[in-house]
Amino acid sequence: MNVRNSAVNWDRWPVSHYLAENYRKLHASDDAVIVHHSAFYRRFAPGELSRTLEFGAGPNLYPLILAGAASQRIDAVERSAACVAYLLGQQRYGPDPSWEPFHARCRELNPDLPDLATVLSRVLVVPGNVLEIPADRYAAASMNFVAESITEDAPEFTAFCHAFIHSVRPGGHLVAAFMENMPSYRLGDGSRWPGYPVDRAVVRDAFAPHTSELTLSRIDPDPDLPDYGYTGMVLLTARRSG
Predict the structure, then answer these.
(1) CA-CA distance, 64 to 55, in Å (whole number)?
(2) Residue 196's closest CA among 22, 38, 13, 5?
């Protein structure tokens, strides 16, 4: 039986193990995502976007950093109490030093990006379920390793993608990254978490009926990251259609 999102206790997400395994240094795969997403955000003048969304922010700061030049305010919507506490702690006490190389790389690609403290000051951490985000609210939205990593159910994966698409106004901009073909996976503490295997075709099927200017690309798996069983990453940009 496939595990649905509501069956998982996301408040116990092991933030420290997840960060240690994935984000304590800048991996080649993250660099590829940063290059892709930075090109997306460079379309916009500094501060052009009044309000943007990070859909299911988790404890990952680099998607928030990437939005920091274009967006005046970044709503980081996150369900997990553990991840919310981490994000708030990064704002209150200052970011972990491990995020500095990520910021430096983002700034290298987009010199308009302000310092890390200024970026974090533009982030509003919003505890909540991403399925309850009001439609038509944002100028742009970002989603990174979320829809395919929080359910094992195909219709629910599609529902998360559609909530992401409709969070922006018609004509609004979307950028996303997906783990390709990632099954249910275990972190270093032994905890098991749901996953729904996707590839470019699955992502296209979810997005094409509701978007225009859809572009999809992929990168190979990173041998320096834990072997969660994934086969690469799928990267997306699009605009919501009417």
Answers:
(1) 11
(2) 5
CA distance 234 to 203: 8
CA angle 21–27–30, rounded 5-degree value: 100
pLDDT in tens, 63-85: 999 999 999 999 999 999 999 99
Tell me the β-bridge partners of 125.
76
Domain range for 117:
5-240
Q: Is 145 in contact with 36 (CB distance < 8 Å)? A: no
Q: Which helix (H) or strand (E) holds 32?
A: helix 28-41
Distance CA 37, CA 161 (A): 18
- A 10 A CB-CB count for 44 gives 18
How many domains would you assign to the chain?
Answer: 1
Instruction: Report residue 242's pLDDT band, with 50, 70 and 90 as the boundaries.
Output: confident
CATH code: domain of residue 101: 3.40.50.150
At residue 144, φ and ψ (nearest 5 deg) are -130, 110
Give the distance between the most distant pair of CA atoms in the chain: 48
Closest CA relative to residue 64, chosen from 137, 158, 145, 143: 143
Return the SS3 of 159: helix
Say if pTM beats, i.e. exceeds, 0.90: yes
Would you say how long the chain is, in residues? 242
